[in-house]
Amino acid sequence: MIATSGSRSAGALLLCRAELPAVRPPARLLREQLLLAPAGSDWSVLVPEGRPWLDDGEPVDRVVTGWATALAVSAATWPVLALWWDADRAGFTLAAGFRRPVGYTWLADGTPAGEDEAMRTFAARLALDPVLDVQALDPLTRPDPDADARTRIIGLTAVLARTGLDLPTGLAPGDSAGRLRSAAAAQGAEPLERPGRRDAPRAEIDVVTGGRLGPYLHGPRARLLGAAQLAAGAPLLAWGIGRRSGGWTTAGVLLVAHGVFGLAYDRLRETPS
Q1: How many structural domains is the chain composed of?
Q2: By CB count within 10 A, which of 40, 51, 186, 189 is most buried?
């Protein structure tokens, strides 16, 4: 079994299909205590401190789904996979761009509690092999008395190892947030500092101009992306405030800020000096 009691045993990992330089700027804007480390070829992992579920009692799955959504929409070019677990369940949420996140859940004893279609969508969005990898994922959606929720999550990461995923030593899905951070720190993971008020504009520019989209983020494409981020962020912000969800509120704030900043940055680029 994964957990023994309450939120103390809950934990999560954010797996980004991108290298550290691409992940660093948008991750800092989440304004959470995160550790960042390489996790194999073209993968990075973010290890959160976990205050929203440890101190505020928020459901871990709701929090990390908000974070993954914000990161994926901000990045636009690489997906984010949130692995999460608590005393009763475990699962994942995959966020990719502006698409609706897809997820799957197992009960603590490993009983599948998700839709088979969600697992197939997961495989397609990560461009997994439609035959071999999908066949490897299929047992995760079938009853297995010998597989608890932790075993299911580890099995999922084993399939992703075919794409180059290689979690740092000691970073074991199913462990508590504290143990995960200790293991990540022991492997030299990089602490991400929250940008201060003076640094925030620079951090926003790094997100807007960094990565593969950087050279194209002005003109019509920038306006389209900024408008889409605003359209996605505003309802998330309202929903998060209404539900008092720090994870979704953070996601909404981040997307709205990116949208506003992106539109303003594009306008400034087009204004003659």
Answers
A1: 2
A2: 189
R_g of the chain computed on alpha carbons: 18
* Rounded Cα gap, residues 95 and 103, in angstroms: 9
Instruction: Judge whether 1 lies within some domain.
Output: no
Q: What is the largest CA-CA distance in the chain?
A: 68
Nearest to 91 by CA among 200, 158, 21, 173: 173
Domain span at 237: 200-270
The predicted-structure confidence for 38-76, as pLDDT tens digits, reads as follows: 999 999 999 999 988 988 888 999 999 989 988 887 776
* Strands across the sheet containing 34-38: 102-107, 89-95, 80-85, 11-16, 44-48, 34-38, 190-192
CA-CA-CA-CA torsion sign (148, 153, 157, 160): positive
Q: Is 181:35 a contact under the CB 8 Å cutoff? A: yes
Tokens of 249: 């509120």
95-133 confidence digits (pLDDT tens): 998 788 999 999 999 999 999 999 999 999 999 999 999
Query: According to the model, what pLDDT value does residue 98 have?
Result: 75
